[in-house]
Give the backbone structure.
Amino acid sequence: MRWLKFGTLIIIFLLAVYAVSMTFVAESKSFTVEKEINYPVDKVFPQFNNLQNFSRWSGFFADNKNLTFDYFTPYEGQGSSMSYHDKKNEDVFGDLFIRYENPNKTLRYQLFEGRNRNPYLIDLKFIPENGKTRVIWYVHTPKQPFLKRSLNLISEDDINQNIESGMITLFNILGNKVNKEQARENLKFDSLMVEEKEGQLLLGVNVNSKNTKDALFKNIVMNHNKTLNFITMDLGKREDEYGEPVLITKANNFKDKEVSYYYGIPLSKRIGVSDNNFTFRTVNASRNYVIYYRGSYSGRISAIQQLLQQAKKDTMRTGDLQQTFLEEPAVESNTVMKLSLPVYR
C-alpha cells in the first residue's frame, strides 16, 4: 500500500513538472526553411501548385506508401485541394488546400491533419536566381492544447526532414523531365525513320470506343488518367519509376466506326495487381517504321497511312500500331507522339 501511494506521488510530481514546463513552450511555432534547386522557376512552380504533382514527391506524403489520395477541381492553383488517408492506419488522414497563388512567385497551403481543427499554415516564396530557384518555406504549426505543447518541440525537425527528402526527390524528377524535353527538341517530326526498339512491359486497360473525333480522344484521356492514377496512387510508383504511355491498336482501324485498343504505361517489372480492370501486356523487341508527330490527334491518320504505304512498298508484314504519347494526352488539337509500326519479313 505504501508503494502504491509512493508511486502515485511520483506520477503526480512528474505531471506537475511537465505541466509547469509546458508554460514555457509556445502553443504554436513558426520557422523558416530555405532550399535551393538547380532548375528554373517555370519548371519548379508547377510541381507545387498542382497537388497531384506535389503529393508524388513531397516528403509529407510520398514517403508513406500506404496513403491514397482524392483530388478536387480545380486541380491546380488557388482553390484546389486534396484529401488523403492511410489504408492501414485509420488515424492517419487529412486535407490540403491551396488558399492563395501568385504564379511563379508565392503559394499558401493550409494542411489539416486528422481531427485537428487547427491547420498548418505554409507560405512558399519562389525566387529565381541564374537559372536556379530558391524556395523559402514559412511554416506556422497548429495551436496545441496546453498538455500537448511538447509536440512543438519536435515538429520543426520532422518538417525539416520531410522538406529535405522531398526536395531531393523533386530534383531527380525534374532531371528526368528536362532530359526528356531536351531529347524532344532534337526530334525530327513528320519524317519516316527506322528504329530498333527494345521490349517493354506495360500495365494498362483494354478499351472499346466510338471512333469519332471527340469521343475517341475523350476516351483516351479518361483511360490515361485512370491508368496513371492507379500506378501512382494505388501502386505508389513515382515519376521516375514508369515510362511514357503507349496506345496499341490495329494500324488501319482508324476507318472503323468503333475501335479497340490497349492503353498502358511501361513498368520495369511485373508486380501483383489486385484490380482486375488492369492487365499486363508484353511488347516484344522489334524493328519499327517510326514517325514523330505533333498536331491534332485526328490529324495523325496521314502519318499512319505513310507508315502503312512504306511497309507495303517494302513488302513487309506489319504488327499492331504503337502510339507513344511524348506529352500526356490532354487537348485533342495539341498532341505530341511517336507512331511506331513493327515490320517483319
